[in-house]
Specification:
Layout (H helix, E strand, L loop, with lengths): L8 H16 L5 E7 L10 H16 L4 E7 L41 H15 L5 E4 H6 L4 H9 L1 H14 L42 E3 L9 E6 L5 E6 L4 E5 L6 E3 L1 H12 L6 E2 H4 L4 H13 L8 E2 L2 E3 L15 H7 L2 H9 L7 E3 L4 H18 L4 H11 E2 L2 E2 L9 H11 L3 H11 L14 H12 L14 H5 L3 H13 L6 H15 L10 H19 L7 H8 L1 H7 L5
Parallel strand pairs: 1-2, 2-3, 9-10, 11-12
Antiparallel strand pairs: 4-8, 5-6, 6-7, 13-14
Helix pairs in contact: 1-2, 6-9, 7-9, 11-13, 14-15, 14-16, 14-21, 18-19, 19-20, 19-21
Length: 577
């Protein structure tokens, strides 16, 4: 796919990442990374953790480089709390708090073997639809297979050095956030972004502990991480721990695979282990004393690696909602968004804003305006009038280095499709008739021509528009309202009805409904509107809505008239018995 050479934010990061990769690891694949915690629904704010490196990785692929986009599933994190708003769970899931996410049962009715896999599956399906290529890494699989054994033993040998680095930030940090607290309370709140953000730094080991330990065993009896390391021998790697449940044991850490490094050590360890060049982080990770900054101080001296290029990304909101947090239920996920918008539109929202710019995703009426903007951009791309930065964002949204994403063959306006879906309640024969009459010179042969956009618009109407705002066309004329019409209103309706035959198309009806008040005022149909004319048009439109749908507003009148059909419209407007 052709791509603008004008530098947008993606191109600038790609330049930096390629240059840094060639300095660190010449001739090797460029490595970018994301981290996601399947502790609950993975929401649209978390998606920025993936889309930012995805867009950069894709640009690097377009330039002919080999690149790996790693997505680490932080599924070996502790289960922290029972989230709200998740179907199939109740308070009994609290008994699993402290276990790895892969050891927690999935919500009731799930087809997946555990909690982590249940929420991973929702995200992987959305990523496939979005065209995101990645290598997934399960941290449960890595830790339990002993992949990080040498790194764990190394961190334990250098625990005093790690503690000294962390101590600088513990004293500097103002009010402690959840990520600075000991992980021994069931009610610990997860922060924004990855659930791993709420990991402690290993500083609190509890009564009887041996001081700072950067490693947390999961208990061999209850399976939870409510453990305290009470002894460790660097030579033999013998580690003794006790658990709040009363269990205790001594293991050889050189053979033991049931535990993990604490988050602020785990993250920089993985940077070095994977050779990560680029990994963004949310504001919760990027503030002074937080994971990204502290990790930058640990990765070199302890693990011999380098901190990735790591831009901070801002929060993503939803129209009418506060910033999202995965610790609360009911927040929209990428799958929710993809039910009401095509993948290109969702990609575009992330591509057109720099990572440090916040933005909102529309689940309300604003989605219609968003689609209007996208269609206008498409026309500019087609006629060559598009600005370079806009062309770059469009290209990144419309496809990847592997090719264009599937698209709607005939992308009719989303607001029109939504109105038709609203009026027809999804009846396909009616929908095809109405859409074919939008432009009689180019009737639709099949609804497949307007899919998947039509399906998204139907889903938006049925899932996001309140029942009281849905359009219900009158089943019979409002005889009382018709009888109460004034002389001018009757004249306006006659002008409209007389013009229906000659104007029965979307463009024709648009011209007609706006022209009626002009003609009544003695002006030409194409006269420029004045404040007085606009007021007359609004009054005329209100009468039409009242007679057609029983209220003074509704879908755009040309679309509504086409949907109602000419004969029924004549009946409801008093022009036929």
């Amino acid at each position: 796919m052709a791509q603008s050479t004008e530098a947008d934010w993606v191109s600038r990061f790609a330049d930096d990442v390629i240059a840094e990769s060639e300095r660190r690891a010449p001739g090797k694949p460029v490595v970018v990374a994301s981290g996601l915690s399947p502790s609950g629904p993975i929401h649209l704010g978390n998606l920025r953790e993936v889309m930012t490196p995805h867009l950069v990785a894709d640009e690097i692929r377009r330039r002919g480089y080999e690149v790996r986009h790693l997505i680490s599933w932080d599924d070996y994190d502790r289960y922290r709390k029972v989230p709200n708003g998740v179907a199939g769970i109740d308070g009994s899931w609290a008994e699993h708090i402290g276990k790895p996410l892969t050891s927690v049962p999935a919500p009731a009715g799930s087809a997946h073997p555990n909690w982590a896999e249940h929420f991973k599956a929702q995200m992987t399906e959305a990523l496939t639809e979005l065209g995101v290529e990645y290598d997934g890494i399960s941290q449960t699989a890595q830790y339990t297979a002993g992949a990080y054994r040498e790194q764990i033993l190394h961190a334990m040998r250098h625990r005093a050095d790690i503690d000294a680095i962390l101590a600088q930030y513990r004293t500097k940090k103002a009010p402690a956030k959840a990520s600075q607290k000991p992980v021994d309370a069931a009610e610990l709140e997860a922060e924004e972004g990855s659930g791993a953000a709420a990991e402690d730094d290993g500083s609190a080991t509890g009564a009887g502990g041996i001081g700072y330990v950067p490693y947390k065993p999961y208990c061999g009896d209850c399976g939870k991480d409510l453990t305290t390391v009470t002894a460790y021998d660097d030579d033999t790697t013998e580690l003794t721990y006790t658990c709040a449940c009363g269990f205790g044991e001594t293991v050889r850490l050189s053979e033991f695979n049931r535990g993990k490094l604490v988050w602020k050590v785990d993250w920089p360890m993985r940077w070095a282990y994977e050779g990560v060049i680029f990994e963004p982080s949310g504001v919760d990770h990027s503030s002074p004393g937080s994971s990204f900054q502290v990790g930058g101080q640990i990765v070199g001296p302890i693990f011999g690696g380098k901190q990735p290029i790591g831009p901070m990304y801002a929060f993503v909101g939803i129209s009418g909602m506060a910033k999202m947090s995965s610790s609360r239920g009911g927040v929209p996920t990428p799958g929710d968004a993809l039910r009401i918008m095509e993948p290109q539109i969702l990609r575009w929202l992330y591509a057109r804003r720099r990572p440090n710019q916040s933005f909102k995703i529309a689940f309300d009426q604003e989605i219609q305006r968003l689609y209007d903007e996208w269609d206008a951009l498409q026309r500019k791309v087609d006629d060559g009038s598009v600005l370079p930065a806009d062309a770059a964002a469009y290209g990144r949204a419309a496809g990847t280095a592997s090719g264009e994403l599937p698209r709607t063959p005939r992308p009719l306006p989303y607001r029109t499709l939504a109105s038709v879906a609203d009026i027809t309640a999804g009846a396909e024969d009616q929908t095809l008739r109405i859409l074919s009459e939008l432009d009689p010179s180019r009737p639709l042969a099949s609804l497949d021509e307007v899919r998947p956009r039509l399906d998204r618009a139907e889903n938006w109407i049925t899932t996001q528009v309140p029942a009281e705002q849905r359009t219900v066309v009158r089943s019979a004329p409002d005889t009382a309202r018709l009888a109460a019409l004034g002389e001018a209103e009757q004249g306006a309706l006659k002008l409209l009805l007389d013009g229906l035959d000659a104007h029965w198309s979307l463009d024709g009806l648009t011209t007609l409904v706006y022209a009626v008040p002009k003609v009544q005022a003695g002006l030409e149909p194409d006269a420029k509107p004045t404040p007085e004319l606009k007021a007359a048009q609004r009054a005329f439109f209100a009468v039409l809505y009242e007679l057609l749908v029983g209220r003074d507003t509704g879908p755009r009148l040309p679309t509504l008239l086409l949907a109602v059909g000419q004969q029924r419209a004549r009946t409801l407007l008093g022009g036929a018995a």
